[in-house]
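USER:
I wish I could look at a protein chain and see how it folds. I am handing you a single protein, as its sequence and its fold in token form. As I understand it, each token names a local backbone shape. I hope you can help me see how the letters and the tokens relate. The protein I mean follows directly.
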Amino acid sequence: MKNYGRLILTILLTALLNAGFAQNFLETEYKSGKTYVLLAHPTVQNIETIHFLTNNNILQLTDAEFVGVYSSEEGYDYNQSIALIKTPDWNKFHLQKVTGKEDTASIYRQNQWTITFKSLFDKSVGIFFFGGPDIQPEAYGQKNIYSEVTDPNRHLFELSFIFHLLGGKQNAGFVPFLKTKPNYMVTGFCLGLQSMNVATGGSLTQDIPAQTYNMKTPQETLKLRKDQLHRNYWPDISKDTLLMGINFHHIKYTAHPFFPDRVNAEKDFFPLVLSSHHQSIYELGKDLIVTATSMDDQIIEGIQHRLYPNVFAVQFHPEVPDLYREGKKLKFAPEDTPKSFYDIIGDQSREFHRKYWITISKAIKSSIRLQKMK
């Protein structure tokens, strides 16, 4: 029995040590000479998304490895991600847990995370910021009116990381990390765009229907044109289980050359995009330029940094795998015929999305070249 007890204890200790190592990339897994891209909020879904995009050559990075970075104070259970990356075929994914807790008064300056942020920055060529729940309005100087904040510590961590990378209006004397590596890639989707804006000193509209269109209920909101809806409000008033929570709407490019020239998007084409948000940029952050808007010009759909060419983000979701493969058939309204995302978006808009991923891939490769030169 004693030997059996020792065996159980050994197994438990080994599991605990392995879990610790799996979350400490900087100390246990980093290898000089390899190319690493960071993933903020590395949930199972976000890791699987990047895995799908690279395996299908949509994100064209054959030799890169990925490091998920997150705060120990986040609400998500990262044991699920630890278990995933321990399985075969996931050896290009790593995790770095960052300990400590900050508040809105300390995220826009040097803090206890600064040294780790700098180390991660020095050892990587770019970072992705994914979608998620509402940012607490206190982080951009507003009172909470319409926001549903479910994971405030995630936002504090990501806002502080982006501020360290890019700087912002909140602290004019702070020297951003990208000052030393201006080709470093920073991109985001939906919440990622909003986080980039807030971290650089911008603010948000907390609820598009209420504050932009003066629509107070889902029923009123659904009277708007479909291109004015940035998520689907039918699930709020219908029990139909086939309703999608998102909306597809068109966007248009501004006079800025990012989409026509860099993405090589057709100037007179208005691509369909997958949208799922009720907040949007209100006041732009420091050195951000608008690259795309909604069809009525009310919502900012794309931004690029004025000084750092590989820093850009979109309000929509080009990363969703079902845009590039046949998936479940759903519908927007109860009377609609169910369709897959793949069928809804169509070939021409899907090609736009693929071009956008090529642009991201080239931005990361540009950062890689700069790192190798040093």
